[in-house]
Every structure is written in structure tokens, then in C-alpha cells.
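From the shared-data thread, chain only:
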Amino acid sequence: MRGDVHDSLKIGLALGGGGVRGLAHVLALETIDTLGIRPAAIAGTSMGAIIGALYASGRSGRQIRKGVEQHIVARGDSLGEIVRKSADLIKWLGAVRPAWKKSGLLSADRFLHYLLEEIAARTFEDLEIPLQVVAADFQSGEPVVFGRGELLPAIRASMSIPGIFVPVEHDGRILVDGGIVNNLPYELLLDTCDVVVAIDVTPERDVSADEPPNVIEAILRMFDILLERLTRAAMETRPPAIYIRPRLREIPLLDFEKIEEVWEQAQPAMEKLESQLHEALRAGEEAGGEA
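Structure, as C-alpha cells:
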């Protein structure tokens, strides 16, 4: 259980979508835990929704990281460690499978069911920290924000990238990845939290690529461009108090073999996060002393 230090200052945490790059959020959670901060509320989209649900259910950043490490072969792993991980690795590799449907190329069901096995909650009401999850209504183009009821349909919808994952039918609507309407949903927290921290994991684009992308690469790159522009537009009107965007390069959206690279590239940004959180806490303490 995380500590209750700094409870007087309500800190909201927004975790953006970005496929495997969203695992950078784990480092942000570790940083938050180290400072003894317990977020008052969390909002997430796509992979940010998954990591947010794990954290909101009571797992620490370190526990989430250990769980992920069980499913990757790290560069420093010995043969014995690889053998020990083999069962988990097989489960991980089989988690995302082709859907062979016209509506999408991949089915996320097994992947999500596996991840949700790690979440100590089945509904939003069971979570220790309030969570909001963003999806998009495919027909109307409107954002759909979940904060009550079952977690699984909300998370499934939030990460269903159009053309890649099969859309989710829920309550008479067809839902797709929330990134197309709100990839970094920090504004959901602005009116209820004193300080909002937004972690943006959209990548730095490689403008030097000299070969045309294949169909899947083109879809995913276009999706990244859309996410970046939507967030930039939101930031121009009402930015969060703390905005962190790790410099993530040459990490495709769904390349889960590059988890270690995500963590390596994201680590420098965590120093900035720690510094800005220290400043926010200090300012909050000073304001409380003057009141």
C-alpha cells in the first residue's frame, strides 16, 4: 500500500496512450511512489488506461514493473532466468492474436484478459483510486468517458486502434481507441485536482526515414501524428501544471520487444518529473502555511 503523504494536495495523474511506449508510465509511477504521493484521481487512454487501472487497483509502480519484467527476456538475463520465465513468456507471446475480421487485424481479448488478471478489481467502484477511461464513439466521433461499472469493456474500447484492433460494441455503440478524440485526458482532472500531472508518450517522429512504410506501419504512424496534434491543440488552451514527454524514438506503437528501450529512453524524463513534483509539493506546503 502506498503512503498517504501530502494528502492535503490533490494530485491528478493523466496517462496517455501510445502502445508499448505507454509502459514508460511505469517509471512515472515509481517516481510518484518514491515521493510518497498518492494520486487523488487518475485518467487514462489506451495503454494509459491499462497502466492506470493496475495502479488504481492497488499495485505499486514497482510491482507493475516486476510483472512486466516476468514477460520479457532482458539483456542481462541468465539462462536460468530465461527458463524460469518461459511459462510467462509463452502466455505473453500468445496474448495478441490475428482477428481475421474486416473490422480489425488483431483481437485484444486474450491480451486484455491476461492483463486484467493482474488487476485486483473488476469494476471502477472496486478501485482504490478513482479512475476515468476514455474511448471514442466510432459513429459520432464523440469521446466516451467511463468511470463506473465494469472495467474490461472500458479498457477494451479505449485501446481498440481503428484498423488494427477489433472495435468494441457496448450499450448499443461501437467504440474505438480514445486516442482519436483525447489521447492525454488531463482536462478531466483539472477541476477536481490542485495539481495535474500529464505523461505524454507520443514519440518523436523520425523524419530521416527513406523507405515507404508498409500498410500497418502507415496506419500506426498516421495514428501517432493524430495523437500528437490533438494533444498539442489541447495544451494551447488549458495546459496541466506538470507536463512530461519522454524522448521516445524509433519505437513502433506495437513493438513489445522494445520494452527495455522504452524504459531506457524514458528515464531522463523521470528526473524532470521528480523535480517538478518536488516544486509542486513545496508550493502547496507554503500555501497551506500561509492559509
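The first helix runs from residue 25 to 34.
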